[in-house]
Amino acid sequence: MSLTDLMTMAKTDKELRKRIFTKLWRAHPDECFQCMRCTSGCTSLKLLELKPHEIVLLVNSGFIQELVSSDIIWTCASCLKCRERCPQNASPYNTILELRNLAVEREAKIPEAYMKAIAQILETGLTQPEQTATTRDMQPQNREKLGLPKLPYANDKFKTVFMKILGG
Ligand code: SF4
Ligand code: SF4
After folding, report:
1. Residue 49 CA: which ligand is closest?
2. Both 62 and 80 in a single domain?
3. Which structural domain, as residue segments, surrounds residue 26?
4. What's the rounded mean pLDDT across residues 147-159?
């Protein structure tokens, strides 16, 4: 469902808006003046049509629950470009993070791919599984064959801290 559909179908929720704003004490989405600098540099816009300026607009307008129930908030790649580019310290990234926190708290549906990525990080400490490469003469290569050091896989300390961050 597009953001425009969400806006036309939803009702505003001032209480939830207030709550998000209380948590966002370092970012100021209410100072957003819709210049779209965030969206024009957004990594996920090219692939997924994520428009951070529209998310900020929806949060400012109080359409929180609709965003929390939507897949849109999970398409952010956490590249932080929007935070860097924003002239108003409105930080769409921080706003999206708070929306995700709210989604988890309300047991909204979290995309399977996202849950798989979290499980992968917890298990190995890596966002992607270790890859092998193939040479021009079709010989498989791994880190060991290439003389690269072993990757530091997740130890118990990492797992404990990660679970703490996740609130587990
Ligand atoms: S969040 Fe910042 S960069 Fe994005 S539209 Fe608002 S003021 Fe512009
Ligand atoms: S942090 Fe998310 S919303 Fe912001 S520019 Fe990167 S992908 Fe887009």
Report:
1. 2
2. yes
3. 3-105
4. 88
